[in-house]
From TrEMBL:
Protein source organism: Ornithodoros moubata
Primary location class: membrane
Protein name, entry field: Membrane insertase YidC/Oxa/ALB C-terminal domain-containing protein
GO-annotated cellular components: mitochondrial inner membrane
Bilayer topology term: Multi-pass membrane protein
Domain Membrane insertase YidC/Oxa/ALB C-terminal intervals: 77-294
Protein family (similarity comment): Belongs to the OXA1/ALB3/YidC family.
Compartment(s) of residence: Membrane
InterPro entries hit by this protein: YidC/ALB3/OXA1/COX18 (IPR001708), YidC/Oxa/ALB_C (IPR028055)
């Protein structure tokens, strides 16, 4: 009797559970209750982006490197920033700039071959127009496609894809941003205002030189921001003059945008802490010296950069 009653009770439980499941599925038991608050995503803001950047790992590594060089050498923070900037440029940007000039030289030396191909491709296009009765638009498309195909073959042959010349910017920009944010963090005691940040702030307050003794405040005489703008303009104009013979419409637009950007950089640098402005100035000064050196034919031969057509 006990087993039979137990079995009957079990059947009732299973039956009730099945009916409950059907009822709840019809009511939508899996749907969220009305009183549950929906998750609201926080909209994008400059403050949240800046905070995330200041707490990022590349910025932390940049600050650790600055502190390590400062403690190891025993130099003041002013000299530490100068040494770090020049060392980074020498070890990373300069070798990549030499490689960039290798690529650009090989790419520039393709121009005579491309000029020889143009008459042949035009003749082939004219023949195709007569044979297949192509209109003017179709003829232009055919000519451009044929020319691009031949140029791509030459680029592959000499291993000088134009994208390879952007490697300097792809490496330089993340490094530049990381160290700029790291120096700003140190001057503003960010992102954590602990005892270590206070010690760094106090050291930077007396770690300057000449007229900018306090590296946590902007340049009081605006000398470094003006010099920074001058160095940037000299760098830009040197590159423009070097490419004067083959400058394109797109390159002209980029050059004009950079001119405006460098003008805007002057007031920005005038309100930034002096340690950041000093880093920017050292980086731009090294870039100017690098451009001057890489225009020397003797130095280019030492680096085995191919002789460019028309090079003096």
């Amino acid at each position: 009797m006990y087993k039979a009653a137990e079995f009957g009770l079990l059947r009732k439980c299973v039956h009730l559970n099945h009916r409950f499941s059907l009822v709840q599925s019809r009511k939508g038991v899996l749907s969220p209750p009305c009183n549950v608050t929906k998750t609201v995503r926080r909209p994008f803001s400059v403050e949240s982006w800046a905070l995330a950047l200041s707490q990022s790992e590349p910025v932390a590594y940049a600050q650790q490197l600055l502190e390590y060089i400062h403690l190891t050498t025993g130099m003041s923070w002013c000299h530490t920033i100068i040494l770090t900037s020049l060392a980074l440029r020498t070890c990373t940007t300069f070798p990549l700039a030499v490689y960039q000039h290798h690529v650009l030289a090989r790419l520039g030396n393709l121009n005579p071959e491309i000029e020889k191909l143009v008459p042949e491709l035009k003749a082939e296009t004219n023949l195709a127009v007569k044979m297949f009765k192509l209109n003017e638009k179709q003829a232009k498309i055919l000519y451009r496609h044929s020319l691009k195909k031949q140029i791509d073959k030459l680029i592959i042959r000499d291993n000088c894809h134009p994208f390879k010349s952007t490697v300097v910017m792809l490496v330089q920009m993340p490094v530049w941003i990381s160290f700029s944010v790291a120096l700003r963090n140190m001057a503003f005691m960010m992102p954590y205002q602990d005892m270590g940040a206070l010690v760094l702030f106090q050291q930077l307050s007396v770690g300057g030189a000449l007229w900018f003794t306090n590296l946590t405040t902007p340049d009081p005489l605006f000398i470094m921001p003006v010099l920074l703008g001058l160095m940037n303009f000299l760098n830009l104009e040197m590159n423009t003059l070097r490419k004067m013979g083959s400058i394109t419409k797109y390159a002209k637009i980029v050059t004009n945008v950079l001119r405006v950007l460098f003008i805007v950089m002057i007031p920005i640098a005038s309100i930034m802490p002096s340690d950041v402005t000093l880093y920017w100035l050292c980086s731009s000064t090294f870039a100017l010296g690098q451009n001057i050196v890489l225009t020397s034919p003797k130095f280019r031969r030492v680096c085995r950069i191919p002789v460019v057509v028309g090079e003096s």
